[in-house]
Specification:
302 residues, alpha/beta, Rossmann fold, 2 domains, 7-stranded parallel sheet, 12 helices, 38% helix, elongated
């Protein structure tokens, strides 16, 4: 019997399908030391963003020789030492298609929130205040959205933004995209200079890609959204830019440390915050679950 461990939960329908295929499924989170011991008894492990599968865990699993597959339910695999695992004969897969629409919709939601001060006015209304004159916003239609990264999520965000009447420019490490119809490819410096709103859609990097140097090239009063990976924006530089008014607002779903402990980020009135919920829709979770089932069925010939 194929034994599967899902450490960060799994869609109910997917769990039922796996059990219907004859798999034994355990849904339980383990801290790293205990996870290393547990994986000796499983053929596959399914993780989301909370579980980190690093070298010591992989070493323990490889030594036991049973674990054959690590699946990341989502797009990014930066919480897994992929090359190291594959070097030990353990395959690593993810579900890149399932959550694109959900993350793109959240990015657009942050654009609306920032443009119309929803994050601020919601709080003051709950405090019994009526500050109508304080929340004069801007419209998205006719504004330029700059997308840094033009993969699946970036393209989905572009489609939604264009439907709202926004002009879309993008830059990407791979250059112009053949599927970027209706959008304009530019180099990053031009994107920074012409965009009214900027949204990040790139993988995790070793260092921030948005620092004071990049912010200085942006329009005054720009808005920045990050629903991609924590650490892409230098927190201190962002706070300084928000305080000076260079950046009018920021929408953040991801953080260098999660949960974030930097009070400057958590309490700043011009930051719209969500707790890494980009893929947290019923539809996305169902699609992720379906992809996980398909990957396991193929890997083990079920």
């Amino acid at each position: 019997m194929i034994r599967i461990l899902a450490t960060d939960g799994i869609d109910k329908a997917a769990a039922e399908k796996l059990r219907g295929l004859g798999c034994e499924l355990t849904e339980q989170f383990f801290e790293p030391d205990e996870l290393a011991a547990q994986l000796k008894e499983y053929d596959a492990v399914v993780v989301r963003s909370a579980t980190k599968v690093r070298q010591p865990v992989i070493d323990a699993a490889a030594e036991a020789g049973r674990l054959k597959l690590i699946i990341r339910g989502g797009v990014g695999v930066d919480n897994i030492d992929v090359a190291y695992a594959e070097g030990k004969g353990i395959a690593v897969r993810n579900t890149p298609n399932a959550s694109s629409a959900a993350v793109a919709e959240l990015a657009i939601a942050h654009l609306f929130t920032l443009a119309r001060h929803l994050h601020e006015s919601n709080v003051t209304m709950r405090d019994g205040k009526w500050e109508k004159k304080a929340y004069k916003g801007v419209e998205l239609a006719g504004k330029t959205l700059g997308l840094i990264g033009f993969g699946r999520i970036g393209k989905s965000t572009a489609d939604k933004a264009r439907a709202l009447g926004m002009d879309v420019v993008y830059c990407d490490i791979l250059g112009p995209s053949p599927s970027g119809e209706g959008c304009r490819y530019v180099e990053q410096d031009e994107l920074l200079a012409v965009s009214d709103f900027i949204s990040l859609h790139v993988p995790k990097s070793d260092a921030p890609i948005i620092t004071s140097a990049e912010i200085a090239k942006m329009k005054d009063g720009v808005y920045i959204v990050n629903c991609a990976r924590g650490g892409l924006i230098d927190d201190g530089d962002l706070i300084s830019a928000l305080d000076s008014g260079k950046v009018a607002g920021a929408g953040l779903d991801v953080f260098a440390e999660e949960p974030p402990k930097d009070e400057r980020i958590c309490s700043h009135p011009h930051i719209s915050l969500t707790p890494h919920i980009g893929a947290s829709t019923s539809e996305a979770q169902e699609r992720i679950g379906g992809e996980i089932v398909a990957i396991i069925a193929e890997a083990f010939g079920l």
